[in-house]
Amino acid sequence: MTPQRQARREQLAAAPINIEVSHVHKWYGEFHVLRDVNLAVSKGERIVICGPSGSGKSTLIRCINRLEEHQKGNIIVDGTELTNDVKNIEVIRREVGMVFQSFNLFPHLTVLENCTLAPIWVKKLPKKEAEAIAMKYLERVRIPDQALKYPGQLSGGQQQRVAIARSLCMSPKIMLFDEPTSALDPEMVKEVLDVMISLAEDGMTMLCVTHEMGFAKSVADRVIFMDRGEIIEQNVPDEFFNNPQSERTKLFLSQILNH
Amino acid sequence: MTVQTTSAPIEKPPVTEVGAIGWLRANLFNSKSNSVLTIVCFAFIVYVIQAVVPWAFLNAVWTGTPKDCQAPGAGACWAVIGEKNRFTLFGRYTYDEQWRPALAIGLFLLLVGASCIRRLWGKALIWAWVGQVFMWAILMWGGVLGLTFVNHEQWGGLPLTLMMSVVAIVVAYPIGIVLALGRRSDMPAARGLCVAYIELIRGVPLISVLFMASVMIPLFFPEGVSVDKLLRAQIGFTLFLSAYLAEVVRAGLQAIPKGQYEAADALGLGYWAKMRLIVLPQALRLVIPPMVNSFISTFKDTSLVIIIGLVDLLNAGKIAVNDPPWRSFYVEMYIYIALIYFAFCFTMSKFSQRLERDLSKATSR
Amino acid sequence: MTDRRSGAQVAEKPKTAFWNDRDVRAVLFQILIVLGVLAAGWYLVHNTLTNLESRKIATGFSFMEREAGFSIGESLVPYSAADTYARAIWAGIINTLVISVIGIFLATILGTVVGIARLSTNWLVARIASIYVEVLRNTPLLLQLFFWYALVSEALPGVREAIRIIPDYVFLSQKGLRIPHIVANDIHGWMFALFLGGFAATLFWRRAAAKHQEATGKLRPLFWPTVGFLFGPAALVWLFAGAPLELIKPVLRGFDFQGGGTFSPEMIALLVGLVTYTSTFIAENVRAGILSVSKGQWEAARALGLPNNRSLRLIILPQALRVIIPPMTSQYLNLTKNSSLAVAIGYPDLVSILNTTINQTGQGIEGVALIMAAYLTVSLSISGFMNWYNKRIALVER
Lengths: 259, 365, 398
What we know:
The structure holds three protein chains of three kinds.
Chain A: H1 3-14, E1 17-28, E2 31-42, E3 46-50, H2 57-64, E4 72-77, E5 80-81, H3 86-95, E6 96-99, H4 111-121, H5 127-140, H6 156-168, E7 174-178, H7 186-201, E8 205-209, H8 213-219, E9 222-227, E10 230-235, H9 237-242, H10 247-257
Parallel strand pairs in A: 3-8, 3-9, 6-7, 7-8
Antiparallel strand pairs in A: 1-2, 1-4, 4-5, 9-10
Chain B: E1 2-3, H1 19-27, H2 32-58, H3 66-70, H4 79-90, H5 99-115, H6 123-141, H7 157-184, H8 188-203, H9 206-220, H10 229-255, H11 258-266, H12 271-286, H13 288-301, H14 313-320, H15 330-364
Helix pairs in contact in B: 4-7, 4-14, 5-6, 7-8, 7-10, 7-13, 7-14, 8-10, 9-10, 10-12, 10-13, 11-12, 13-15, 14-15
Chain C: H1 7-12, H2 22-54, H3 85-118, H4 123-137, H5 141-155, E1 163-166, E2 170-173, E3 176-179, E4 181-182, H6 186-216, H7 223-240, E5 247-248, E6 251-253, E7 256-258, E8 261-263, H8 265-292, H9 295-303, H10 308-338, H11 342-345, H12 350-361, H13 364-397
Antiparallel strand pairs in C: 1-2, 2-3, 3-8, 4-5, 6-7
């Protein structure tokens, strides 16, 4: 283990817990999709979640900003427990940014309007200020020149970068990524990953569902493997990839790395 | 670092999430406002049931005379339907010969049933329909095979309604195709004429087209040629429907990818060969569901012939309850007729929805 | 795909037989079509003229100046049997427009409610809404009109036992709905002027609020100020003037009510029939429009922290309306066209009055032409508007 890694680990151990998921269960009808999931995420920690499709990884991060409801257990985000209380949910959604597999940009608004919408209507910022912030983040994702176009006029990679900028405009403390590169053509994956790496370098707390193992190796503090609704194995990337413990993890890694 | 060795058991969801309770919670009481809505709806249903059931069933008079129906406390008078059923269904058709239209309807239903089975789609089915037309002509008119002749001015009721809608769609269909091709052609004169016709007809109510047919068609032909009411109404419907079918077919033509046209051109096919062999077979398959919907509208619209005095199903029912002793039982008769229309239209629309799903599955594969 | 005559080809093959040239063929074909249509047209017109002559029917619209001699059950324009046909037809046009406008307004509200109800997560609400839609869509409108008319004129109590919806003021009976008339008062004019002023003030307030939000980000209240501006000044003036409201109440005298205004049974049946029937089609449009906005849009809006009502207004509705509005206008047109079924239950709309006119004068062609011209005017102007609208939203999109 390199000294840098060691330092990073100590730093994280000292950091406060940002997300705490304990004994969470969820069912879709009769189907037990999350089984007793426990997870604590420190402030500034970068976590990659992987696993076969249908393993519940997307459901887990969608529970964290309550796009899905869990039915048993507790989720505490930034000190606020997720309950049916609408006010709590709104507070948490303000703190947590989310990037979707299918971008979900608003097609009837320009790129700039997509980015300023939430700052104006949720944070109640003046329009000028919101636009300044939006332009800052659009520059950060390297597409300020597309600000006045509509999402339909952009490539997939550009759209996903706008979606990231849109989330950043709310200055979230936590970012959730739900397979952000799965819907992209191969040549566009890198431009999105680059943006995510630069975010990671800034110390953002990140939970990322992805199959980009290169990204996991270089950025993640912890890799979590989920299968059939439960967390099977979690470890630092080096150990996870070089020395997987569980048979299911080995099988999964062999399938995904041999591609 | 951490490996979970013992797996958490796959549990049954909490009882509040599945089964009857779960279903109720998810579908009726998933929030405060929904619970209120559920209770309001439930109260509404109870109110309707307590208002309708005694009238329609408990106190209803199923058989009997108008006197029985007017007795105090009597509910719906279904006796009127038993009494007037034959007239409602067959109009003024010779009473003793009414088995003939009944048989014709039976044949029609059989063939419609067969047409709904996609395995049977093919040439044989088309010939069966052609044969059906002749069977109908023989059954309805008679005059051959020992059947007594019944003039078509006596036709009425359900057979008339069915016949007018079927003839209208069969004749309007090719006209609609020609109009649609014309509207998409690049010859300005042909296109202009087709657009003018389609927009004119679609811009005016059906009633005015029927008026036009009944007022102007007699004037259109030289002295001595007479066109009777039934034929006039039929022409009106056909003209009207062809404009709507043209738009349906046009939508189908537009849905065919440009590559198909180009491929046909590249094979050296001429315009007509291209349309007949490549484009139309695909486009017409695509538009079967909207065609069924057009047929449903036409079927409902035939009720408008009451305005020019033909005795279709609705008018027959209306005339039937004009009989003084039964006069106050309009509502029962209308409900009966509505049920007949509903049975036809609902089945067809469900069929067209299923077909749409099947076809879209077939094309997306 | 029309580059069928590249210059090189023409130069290479100068000796195309002219009947094989595609352009020549197209022209010939079109000439044939036009000639065919003209010939058929000439044949029909010729026959018509001969027939008219032999039946001694004069053509032309001069009959419109003659006295109509029939009365009209209800009319917004002053009309008596001694007026001309032209005036009777005018009354019919106004009646058609009145029915259409009221019908469109009510059908839109009802249809939107039913459409949203069909999408409700509440199973019972969704079921009831879909039964409503299926039953009304799958039976003929004319039958429904007859049904409503029979219900109003047979099932409702007689005048003497009229249902008192608001006792002493509003009565419902076989003879229709009776409502009180408001006696005109000078103050009403002032109230109307203040209402218009309030409307302008509301617009001003909303614009100022938008500017304020743009500058500071703070939201100003909109709903209550709007209500206040619209109705406040008018209500104050009315109260200060001593709340003058004199109503002519409908009073039962003999066999009918006297005084007040009436919605006739025909009008009620026609309105109920048209509104409920059209609302089912509008409901399907609304449903399809809302379904056309993907679930991801809701999720993205929520993930950004927008509350549900804001997500609906800022994200979902703007997208759904684009899908909803074009078919909605064709439903409006259908309602207007279907209002011609009034002739079957005796509401004096345009078609009904022209029908009487045709029967009295024998001017069938002119009558039908007038009906068609009136409806075509409405249809073409609405579809013209639609084309303009579609182009506009297409431009906004990209």
